[in-house]
Write a structure and sequence with these properties.
The protein is an alpha+beta fold. The protein is built from 4 helices and 6 strands. It has helices at about 15-30, 35, 55-70, 150-155; strands at about 40-50, 50-55, 70-85, 85-95, 100-115, 120-130. The longest helix has 17 residues, at about 15-30.
Length: about 160
């Protein structure tokens, strides 16, 4: 994996930041750890819940573990604010475990990018809420969220 320019690049305005957020959402919804890792610097630093992750190899391993546990994962991200090389995002995703119990996970992420548009730091705080299958709001086919599917604000989340 190499470090290529990953547009849009900083400094971000609200439009370019919103585009970056949607591109990240789309990549995560592929559940392809190798593809997702290409958006991060080779030495990217993460805090995800209580895990500290450094570099693409650890990112790939983390995501592969995550998506083996979080089945039928569907994610929506929404821009909170952007400033220069930093973006703040809120998100929610739905998934179930191997026992069939459903969850909606809510969180916030703080992102920092290098000049090439690769994320060098990701700090994520996440809480899981058990839900009934009937309470699910993210019901599109696995993969990219359709353009006409409501976002978090429209869903009241």
């Amino acid at each position: 994996m190499t470090d290529k320019i990953k547009p849009p690049v900083p400094p971000f305005d609200s439009a370019s930041a919103a585009e970056k957020v949607r591109l990240a959402e789309d990549a995560w919804n592929t559940r392809d750890a190798q593809k997702v890792a290409l958006a991060y610097t080779t030495d990217s630093q993460w805090r995800n819940r209580n895990e500290f992750i450094k570099g693409r190899e650890q990112i790939v391993a983390f995501l592969q573990r995550k998506w083996r546990r979080e089945l039928d994962y569907r994610l929506i991200k929404e821009l909170w604010i952007a400033d220069g090389h930093k973006i703040a995002v809120r998100f929610a995703y739905e998934w179930h475990n191997d026992s069939g119990l459903w969850f909606r996970s809510y969180g916030n992420e703080n992102w920092e990018f290098n000049d090439a548009g690769l994320m060098k730091r990701r700090i994520a705080s996440i809480n899981d809420l058990p839900i009934e299958e009937s309470e699910r709001k993210f019901r599109w086919p696995l993969g990219r969220r359709p353009d006409d599917h409501p976002g978090l604000s429209e869903l009241g989340l």
